[in-house]
Specification:
537 residues; alpha+beta; 4-stranded antiparallel sheet; 27% helix
Length: 537
């Protein structure tokens, strides 16, 4: 009997997995223990083995696609076995149905069905004006004012209306000659993008069938009369903002400024606009001086800004499972736990001498981060309240000390755990961190390597970052952020001398840790690092 292979839950925080690659294809013989696929989880890329022998009959997920935990990803059984009932039982949706081609006879029936009931409007000598999408975030526009009324003659390039978007008030031009036959929205009212706002065409033509025609949607072909209008209206959006006043035959002027100019008898072509993109606004009319208008025109034309050409571009990539979990976990932490941070400067002179001495006599080279891990574990032992978790109706204080060490990897961030760090020597911590870091870089970490931390350390000192604060790695209630060692002038015994300082920031969950508790912990940590012999006691 065929067996269904479902996406396994490979870690305690995993909600979905991505098929990084398939090691088998449909029709291949599979033995128990064979690797079927590589699965990218929120923490690592892991191998998915088969626990059944047989033939791979079905693959339900393409490479690089993600599916939730327990979704069907494959079926193994006997060659030729009927598995249709198993596929149709996939709660995540039948992939078979998505991939099944439509028979030719069904295709021919489907096409007329989509257009059934629609009227042929190709012979109507009129053009529908729709609300254009004037910005990437625009969903609707407000008609601020109409510059034409029904029955008015309209020429290509004439201003029809002013439209207020989510970002600015812009002018909507006509790119058709004719008569304004219909206005579909009053001034002051909003209409969604692609909504009909007007109709321009031959005087007396029956335009009403156009109003009942189906509005264009993304990916659908427009009708004959709508298709050119989509291009023309879009062009009218970019025209006012893309072309300077020097190269545009139409003067850019606000309605208020235009009315004031007409009232004062001012020739608007003699004005230099001070508004956006050279637009003439009220202050230009108020400050108009006929004696200097000529010199202003000359100055404007000679000092026009150079045209900068370029091409905007971007790349969109699918969000990886790891990045989704980072976004979810850190977002939940930041917006559920009240964070506060404390900063302290540590004298690193003795620590630098101690590290140099230790590394002269040990094979495992100890880093400053290793010393911080050890000092942190010892300080936690003296201040156990920073080693807890918030559980809603109770607080857990852990008696063991497992230090999570943040490690940057290509796809994001992982936090492998150094267990019982307070009981380890510096060289043992060094070996453990190197081993875990190597696994992280090679995507070989197992879930057990990243579970159970009680306190977290993040170190960006190797990148030259002097100080920073981190988001708490829940369920921990504290995280320290370690900066770079700085060689700076310091005062010792009344004298200014060179010194080495390192900044440490403690970020805590105020539901569990109070400011005084955090400050006392930092004082102890500072004392231990400044006199490293104490962490070896």
């Amino acid at each position: 009997m065929a067996e269904v292979i479902k996406m396994p839950k490979m870690s305690d925080t995993m909600t979905e997995g991505t098929i990084a690659s398939w090691a088998k294809k449909v029709g291949d013989t599979v033995k128990a223990g064979d690797v079927l696929a590589e699965v990218e989880t929120d923490k690592a890329t892991m191998e998915l083995e088969s626990y059944e022998a047989g033939t791979l009959l079905y693959i339900g997920v393409k490479e690089k696609d993600s599916v939730p935990v327990d979704a069907i990803i494959a079926i193994i059984g006997k060659a030729g076995e009927d598995i249709s009932s198993l596929i149709n039982g996939n709660s995540g949706g039948s992939i078979e149905k998505q991939n099944t081609p439509i028979p030719p006879d069904e295709k021919s029936d489907a096409i007329p069905a989509n257009v059934e009931g629609q009227k042929d409007t190709s012979g109507i000598e009129a053009t529908v004006i729709r609300m254009p999408k004037m910005s990437d975030t625009m969903t609707e526009g407000v008609i601020v004012a109409w510059h034409k009324k029904v029955g008015d003659k309209v020429k290509s390039g004439e201003l029809l209306a002013e439209v207020e978007t989510d970002k600015a008030t812009m002018e909507l031009e006509s790119y058709e000659d004719g008569t304004l036959l219909y206005i579909g929205i009053e001034a002051g009212k909003a209409v969604p993008v692609d909504g009909i706002i007007a109709v321009v065409g031959k005087e007396g033509v029956d335009y009403k069938p156009l109003l009942s025609s189906t509005p264009p949607k993304n990916g659908q072909a427009a009708s004959k009369e709508d298709k050119p209008q989509e291009v023309k209206v879009a062009a009218s959006v970019t025209q006012p903002v893309a072309v300077s006043s020097n190269g545009d035959s139409r003067v850019k002027i606000s309605p208020l400024a235009k009315a004031l100019a007409e009232g004062k008898g001012i020739d608007i072509k003699s004005l230099a606009g001070s508004g956006e993109n050279g637009r003439i606004v009220k202050r230009d009319i108020d400050s108009y001086n006929p004696s200097t208008s000529t010199s202003k025109e000359t100055q404007t034309s000679s000092s026009s800004a150079p045209v900068i050409s370029g091409q905007e571009s971007f790349e969109e990539v699918p969000v990886t499972s790891m990045r989704k979990v980072i976004a979810r976990a850190l977002g939940e932490s930041l917006f559920t736990a009240p964070h506060f941070s404390l900063v302290i400067d540590v004298d690193m002179d003795k620590a630098m001498e101690a590290r140099k001495s230790i590394n002269e006599y040990t094979e495992a080279k100890v880093s400053f981060n290793d010393m911080v891990i050890k000092a942190t574990a010892v300080a936690i032992r003296k201040h156990p309240k920073v080693n807890g978790s918030w559980l809603g109706d109770k607080i857990r204080y852990n008696n063991h000390i497992h230090i999570g060490v943040a490690v940057a990897v290509e796809d994001g961030l992982v936090v492998p755990v150094v267990r019982f760090a307070d009981s380890m020597s510096l060289t043992q911590i060094s070996s453990s961190v190197k081993d875990l870091g190597g696994k992280a870089k090679n995507k070989k970490l197992q879930p057990k390597d990243m579970e159970g931390s009680t306190f977290t350390i993040s170190n960006l000192g190797m990148f030259g970052i002097e100080s920073f604060s981190s988001i708490i790695n829940q369920p921990n209630v504290c995280i320290i952020s370690v900066g770079a060692i700085r060689n700076i002038p310091v005062v010792k015994e009344g004298q200014i001398v060179p010194g080495n300082r390192m900044s440490i920031t403690l970020t805590s969950d105020h539901r569990v840790v109070d400011g005084a508790v955090g400050a006392q912990f930092l004082q102890t940590l500072k004392a231990l690092i400044e006199d490293p012999i104490r962490i070896l006691a």
